[in-house]
Structures are given as structure tokens and as C-alpha cells.
Design brief:
Layout (H helix, E strand, L loop, with lengths): L6 E9 L10 H6 L4 E3 L2 E3 L4 E6 L2 E7 L1 H5 L1 H13 L2 E7 L1
Antiparallel strand pairs: 1-5, 1-6, 2-3, 4-5
């Protein structure tokens, strides 16, 4: 999958049947691999961050992730495919 520089991939926490993906903290776990810690606080990377859209947990993937962290980008795409999650491509 290729994203243009002005696009972002939104991974929606619903499977193809429309059911919520479990476990409920999947987005935080996925984004936690790129987070940093300062003063005992977690800061998510702007390249991979959790969000809630219309009451559904999502992960927002910046297009820069593919060029700056290609292995992580491939891991995220594999996660989406393996768990049959819905995705959308949006302009930034």
C-alpha cells in the first residue's frame, strides 16, 4: 500500500463484519511500540497514534511512517490484514 505525502491511513477498530475489534486496548498496544516516555508519561508518536472516531477506536498512520520506519509500517499493514480491520485513506 502506498500513501501520498498528504494522506493518512486510518485503521478502524471494526472487522469486516462490523464488530468491534478486541481486545479493547488494541490501538494503544499497537501505537505503544513507537511511543516515548518523559517524566513517567507516555507520548505517542505523530506517525502512529490512537484516536476515537465516532465512538470507535482507531489508529492514525501518517504517510511518513512508510519512509521513516518502513519495518513498522509493514508490521502495521500486516496487523490490519491479519485481523481483517477496516481502513480509510484520508487527506491530512
Amino acid at each position: 500500500m502506498q500513501l501520498a505525502d498528504n494522506e493518512k491511513l486510518v485503521i478502524i477498530g471494526l472487522n469486516q463484519a462490523g464488530q468491534k475489534f478486541r481486545p479493547s486496548d488494541w490501538a494503544e498496544r499497537l501505537c505503544g511500540s513507537l511511543c516515548t516516555f518523559r517524566n513517567r508519561r507516555m507520548y505517542y508518536s505523530p506517525l502512529l497514534r490512537p484516536a476515537v472516531i465516532d465512538g470507535v477506536k482507531c489508529v492514525i498512520v501518517d504517510a511518513k511512517l512508510a519512509s521513516e520506519q518502513s519495518e513498522m509500517f509493514q508490521y502495521v499493514l500486516g496487523f490490519v490484514q491479519e485481523n481483517a480491520l477496516k481502513t480509510e485513506i484520508q487527506a491530512k
